[in-house]
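Subject: for your reference before the review

Hello V.,

The reviewers asked for a structural picture of the protein, and I figured it would be easier to keep everything in one thread rather than splitting it across files. Below is the amino acid sequence we used in the manuscript, unchanged from the supplementary table.
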Amino acid sequence: MAEKIKTILISQPKPSGDKSPYFDLAKKLNLKIDFRSFIHVEPVDAQEFRQQRVSILEHSAVIFTSRNAVDHFFRMCEEMRVTVPDTMKYFCISESTAYYLQKYVVYRKRKIFHGQVRFADLMDVMKKHKQEKFLLPCSDLLKPSIPKLLEDAGMSYSKAVMYRTVCSDLSDLSDVKYDMLVFFSPSGIESLFKNFPDFTQGNTRIAVFGPTTAKATIDAGLRIDVNAPNQKAPSMTMAIENYITGKA
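And here is what came back from the structure prediction:
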C-alpha cells in the first residue's frame, strides 16, 4: 500500500529558494510534492490590542518565539506610535529569529539573546535575567507549555496577543486528491474539516508532526500513518521516506 504513494500535500508554505529536504525527497523517490498553507496569520489592530491593557513600555525585555512575533511587535509599536528604547533586551527562540531582528533594529547595538529552537533552551538563557519584566508578543493560539515554563520559573511577564491564526480558504482543492496529507499543528487539522466538513480518510495516508498535532488528529477520528519525530526519524522528510520505503 505504501509504495502507491506518488502525491503528497504539505500543509505549509512552499520553502523559499531551491534547497529543501522536501525537494530532495521528491527527486529521490519520484514524488509530486505540493505545498499549501492551511492556516495564515492576521493582525490584531491597535484598538483591539489596547483592550488587553498591556503597556509595551512597562517592559524591559521582549520574547520572540517566531518571525511572525517579530513582525507584529514592531507593527504594533508603529501603529501605537511607541518608540522602543535602545535599552530593550530581546530574547529569541533561535539564532535565525535573532538575525531576523536586523530588519528592525541595528543588531550589533542591541542586547539580543537566543536559544537553540526549543523554548526550554531559551528559558535557560532567560533565567540569568530574572530581574527583567518580559513582554511575550504572540498569537491567540499560544502553546500552553510556554506560559507554564515562564510561570514555573517565576518570571515576570505579560502575554500580548498581537496576531491571530485563522483557517485559510482551500476551496480550490476540493477536486484535488493526494495520497498523503502532512500536518504540523492542530490548526491544520481544524482547517481541513472547516474547509472539507465531509472529509473521509479512506486510503489517504496522514503524517503528523508532534504530540499536539497527533492528539488533534486522533480526536478528529483520523488514522495516523506517519508520526514524527520518532526514534528512527527526527524529521518529517525522513519519517515519510521510511514509511514509503518500508523502513518505518
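For the response letter, the relevant points are probably these. The first strand starts at residue 7 and ends at 10. The chain is about 30% helix and 25% strand.

Happy to draft the paragraph if you're swamped.

O.
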